[in-house]
Amino acid sequence: ESTAADNTTSGVASGSTQGITIKMNDETLKKSVTALVRQYRAALATGDTETLATLFNTDALKSPGTYTGMAEVITGYQNTECCIMNGMDDTSKIVFIYDDLTLAGIDVSVPNVTAICVRMSASGQLYIDPGTYDEDSFSYKYDDETMAYINNLKGVGDAADMVRKANEKFEEACNTDPQLKQFISDMIDATDN
């Protein structure tokens, strides 16, 4: 069963630089990633495709309408927490992000966990590697190897605790708010068809 609390976002756009080793002490990395995620969430909430393109280290997003449309449904991200884990090599980090989502027309917030891959550009700036653009789904996706790695990390340590907490809060929210339960049911039905 798919829940909002168990989504993994994806999305690198062409022109990204890979292969730069991320060399930061833990505190600097945490501050830098937190700032990047705040910018990312603010851009998602407002459908700011120019900022998203910058955060994805590309000149332009493919299918920017996906992001502006998403901003009409998910209107805010609160209580954001990050869990930074090692990536598949020393050029990346996997960041699990917990948020309480604000959905248009829904009174209760929706707990959600997503994962992103963070890399460092040649200029030394962290950016979000969204994966490769998939023409069929009009979205960015990570390759199978990266998704398998993320899914494995989802069951380990702080990431597993974050996912468990989100799933528990999600179940509680669905059980107490019939409007949310119907919204989720409609979303599942729409993706199954």
How would you describe the overall organization of this protein?
This protein is an alpha+beta fold and 193 residues long. Helices cover 43% and strands 24% of the residues. It contains 6 helices and 6 strands, in the order H-H-H-E-E-E-E-E-E-H-H-H. The strands form 2 sheets. It has a 4-stranded antiparallel beta sheet with strand order 1-2-3-4. Strands 5-6 form a two-stranded antiparallel ribbon. A hairpin with a 6-residue loop joins strand 2 and strand 3. The two termini are 15 Å apart.
State the main characteristics.
disordered N terminus, single chain, 193 residues, alpha+beta
Radius of gyration: 16 Å
Using the alpha-carbon principal axes, give the shape: globular
Question: Which bin fits the share of residues in helices?
Answer: 40-55%
Structural class: alpha+beta
